[in-house]
Amino acid sequence: MTSRPDSSIVADINDLKVHFPVRKGVFGGVAGVVKAVDGVSFKIRRGEIFALVGESGCGKTTTAQAVLGLVPKTSGRVALSVGDWKEKSVNWEDLTSMQKRELRKQIQVVFQDPFSSLDPRFTVRQVIEEPLIIHKICSGSKRAEIVKDLLNKVGLSDEYLNRYPHEFSGGQRQRICIARALATGPELIVADEPVSALDVSIQAQIINLLQDLQSTYNQTLLFISHDLAVVRHVANRLAVMYLGKIAESGTENHIFSTPRHPYTALLLESIPVPGKGRSNRGKVLSDDREKTGPENGCSFYSRCPRRIDECLQRCPELVDAGDNHLVACFNPLPAKS
What we know:
alpha/beta, 10 helices, about 30% helix, about 25% strand, globular
């Protein structure tokens, strides 16, 4: 364990790398490595909604799983300051099995598919009550009160307590998942694409619910999404990922009003505008189908419209372009005046 002077930081991820071996042949020899997460660094402040954004396969979910302690990291640090470790940060690797269970009580997750993440044999009461039983939080009579209160918090009536997941719509199931995540009173909730499986009208309801919980209970969220339009309405700060690295990071105003990285700008142009469609429709990126970067250079090199020779020679570091607006680019877009 290491001391942490800044108590406002819930999670400090520094140079995180998660690599998976590629095995081939009869004997399963290692033929290569997939760098799912390759040197990611960011901090999540207490009481904020921090978002990781990017295309499918960019490493967002693997980063979240490393924060949750669900995948082993290759190198780097995931320092968490929650629960008994508020004053001193802790890493998953430093904990015993009992300590890990205690830490998991403080870090809960809302999964992408609300149907597959609910046990079809459990009633709503059992679903929400299960974490209370596992962590031995209270007695049976008190649990019934807590379950009803949690259901009301997410906008559902307690008349649903004895129903099963298949009897609910997608939005209602996700509300049940959120109630379950809140059951242990966590300090950090990881929401992994929580609205991508829902209709647009239902997405707005779930986003509003998450925002209400964050403002009412000072809840801290790590929000994973590929949809910038969704993130714009929910996140305080965000980081844009591409092929396992962070391309740009900053506040909502930084990213959406003054994007500096070419990849961020292209993502923003791909957001459909009502009545107009996408502003980059018909635009062809150089080597658009090639999603592998050079060994030593920038991972976005083959698709970048602003690439220069230096991009091929070494990988750009994430540097402050001003006002804590971080950009990893040798030839960034000019700042808007």
